[in-house]
Design a protein that fits this description.
Layout (H helix, E strand, L loop, with lengths): L1 H24 L9 E8 L15 E9 L6 E3 L6 E4 L3 E6 L2 E5 L5 E2 L5 E2 L5 E5 L15 E2 L14 E7 L22 E8 L5 E10 L5 E8 L2 E2 L4 E5 L5 E3 L4 E3 L15 E3 L11 E7 L7 E6 L4 E6 L4 E7 L1 E3 L7 E4 L2 E3 L8 E3 L8 E4 L1 E3 L5 H33 L3
Parallel strand pairs: 11-19
Antiparallel strand pairs: 1-2, 3-29, 4-28, 5-6, 5-9, 5-24, 7-8, 9-10, 9-23, 11-20, 12-13, 13-14, 14-15, 14-16, 16-17, 18-19, 21-22, 22-23, 24-27, 25-26
C-alpha cells in the first residue's frame, strides 16, 4: 500500500512539473493563460464509511485549471494587434465552428478577412445602418476589409463664419467685376465637390453698398456666377438680420463634368459686422471626393473603422466579445483557443465597455500572464515532492527487504 501511495505522489509531482513546464514554455505566447494543477487526497472507503484512524491512500489530480487573470499590455503600434483589458474573449469562426481566444494577434488573409494565425476569422456585430452609430448585436459576421474606394459625397452646405468691417466704404469701382479687385471689398474661397467627387472652387465676394450696415454677397463657382447677389443686412450691434434665417439657398449649378447639378445652401448664421477688420472665423463644407483605403482603426469600444484618404471613417463592425459564467469550464483547444462546454455555461455576448466586458486596445497585445519567478519556485517545490516520494519508495523497499531477510 505504501508503494502505491508514494507512486501516486510521484505521478502528482510529475503532473505538476508538466504543467509548470508548459507555463514556462508559453511565457512569451500572446494571450496565454497559465495552468495550475489541482490535487485531492485519496481515502479507501467502504459502505460503512472511512475509519477515523485509517491512513490515506495517496493523492490524485483533480484537474488542471486555467488562470484567467489579466496579462500585461504590450504596445506594438500595429493596428491589427488588439488587446483586451478586462473581461471577455474574442469570438472567432473557423469554418463555422465558434471558438474563443484572448490572443489578439490578427492579420489579413488573401480575401481581406481579419484572421488569427490559425486562420479563424474575427467575428463582429454588423452596422445597423450606413451611419454606423448602432450595431446588430444579435448577429455575427466575419470582419472583412473592403478594398473598394470610398464613394464621393456632393457638397450641399457651405458654412461661412465671417466678420465684415463696420467702417468699410463702398468700392471705388462699380459695377462689380470679379476680375477687378477695386470693385469689391473682400473675398474668400472654399473647395466644393460634385456628385462625381470632382473639386470646384466656390468664391464669395463681399461688396459694401451705400446703405448703412448693408452688403452684397456674390457667389461664383469656377468663375461662373451662381444666382443673383444676396443682400446681407446687419443691425446696430453687428448681428445678421437679413436673411432672417441666416441661410441662403443658391440656384442649382451644373458643373459640366456629367455630375448632378450642385445645389448649395450657405449657412451665414455666424456672420457678424464688428470692428475694422475682415476675418473668416469658420469656412467649411460637407462634401468630399473619392477616397482610397489607407488603414483601419479600432476604438476602445471595439468599433472597427476603415480610414480613407478623403478623411472618411467607415464603420465595418463592432468586435463581438463573449463571456461565460464559468470560464474555467472552457475546453482548451490549443493555439490560444477555447470552446464552450456544459461546465462553462451558456455564452453571453456584448460590446467592449458594456456590462462586465473589458475595453479594446488597438496597437497592443495582451502578453502571457505567466509569472516566471513563481513558476521557477513551483518547479523547485514539485521537484522536491518528487524526490521525497521517491525516497519513500526506497525506504519502504528497505523495510520490505529487512522483513524478507528475517530468519
Amino acid at each position: 500500500m505504501t508503494f502505491r501511495t508514494a507512486l501516486s505522489g510521484i505521478n502528482a509531482a510529475t503532473t505538476d512539473l508538466s504543467v509548470t513546464s508548459n507555463n514556462i514554455a508559453n511565457v512569451s505566447t500572446a494571450g496565454f493563460k497559465a495552468g495550475r494543477a489541482e490535487f485531492g487526497d485519496l481515502f479507501a472507503a467502504s459502505i460503512f464509511g472511512t475509519a477515523r484512524n485509517t491512513a490515506g491512500a495517496g493523492v490524485r489530480v483533480t484537474g488542471i485549471t486555467q488562470q484567467f487573470t489579466q496579462g500585461s499590455i504590450e504596445f506594438t503600434n500595429r493596428n491589427l494587434d488588439i488587446a483586451l483589458s478586462g473581461g471577455g474573449f474574442f469570438t472567432l469562426s473557423s469554418n463555422g465552428a465558434i471558438t474563443y481566444s484572448r490572443a489578439g494577434n490578427f492579420q489579413l488573409d488573401r480575401d481581406g478577412f481579419v484572421v488569427n494565425p490559425s486562420g479563424a476569422r474575427l467575428q463582429v456585430f454588423p452596422p445597423a445602418g450606413p451611419a454606423g452609430t448602432a450595431f446588430e448585436t444579435g448577429r455575427l459576421v466575419d470582419l472583412q476589409l473592403t478594398t473598394t474606394d470610398s464613394p464621393p459625397n456632393a457638397t450641399t452646405r457651405v458654412t461661412v463664419g465671417s466678420n465684415l468691417p463696420a467702417n468699410a466704404a463702398a468700392p471705388a469701382v462699380s459695377p462689380f467685376d470679379p476680375n477687378d479687385t477695386n470693385s469689391f471689398n473682400h473675398s474668400t474661397s472654399v473647395t466644393v465637390f460634385d456628385s462625381l467627387g470632382v473639386a470646384h472652387v466656390h468664391t464669395l465676394y463681399y461688396v459694401k453698398t451705400a446703405n448703412p450696415n448693408e452688403w452684397e454677397l456674390h457667389n461664383y463657382i469656377n468663375g461662373t456666377a451662381v444666382g443673383t447677389p444676396q443682400t446681407l443686412q446687419y443691425d446696430a450691434q453687428g448681428a445678421l438680420t437679413t436673411p432672417t434665417t441666416g441661410l441662403v439657398t443658391l440656384p442649382p449649378h451644373t458643373p459640366g463634368t456629367g455630375a448632378a447639378p450642385l445645389a448649395l445652401t450657405l449657412d451665414l448664421r455666424a456672420s457678424t459686422q464688428f470692428g475694422e477688420r475682415f476675418a473668416i472665423n469658420d469656412l467649411r463644407q460637407d462634401g468630399f471626393t473619392t477616397g482610397r483605403l489607407i488603414g483601419i482603426e479600432v476604438s476602445q469600444q471595439g468599433v472597427v473603422f476603415a480610414r480613407y484618404t478623403n478623411g472618411v471613417a467607415s464603420p465595418l463592425g463592432q468586435i463581438a466579445l463573449s463571456t461565460f459564467p464559468n470560464a474555467q469550464g472552457l475546453q482548451n483547444l490549443g493555439d490560444n483557443a477555447w470552446s464552450q462546454t456544459f461546465e462553462s455555461g451558456d455564452v453571453r455576448r456584448g460590446a467592449a465597455g458594456t456590462s462586465d466586458f473589458g475595453l479594446v486596445q488597438s496597437g497592443a497585445l495582451e502578453s502571457s500572464n505567466v509569472e516566471l519567478t513563481e513558476q521557477l519556485v513551483n518547479m523547485i517545490v514539485a521537484q522536491r515532492n518528487f524526490q521525497a516520494n521517491a525516497q519513500m519508495i526506497q525506504t519502504n523497499d528497505q523495510i520490505q527487504q529487512t522483513i524478507i531477510n528475517l530468519r
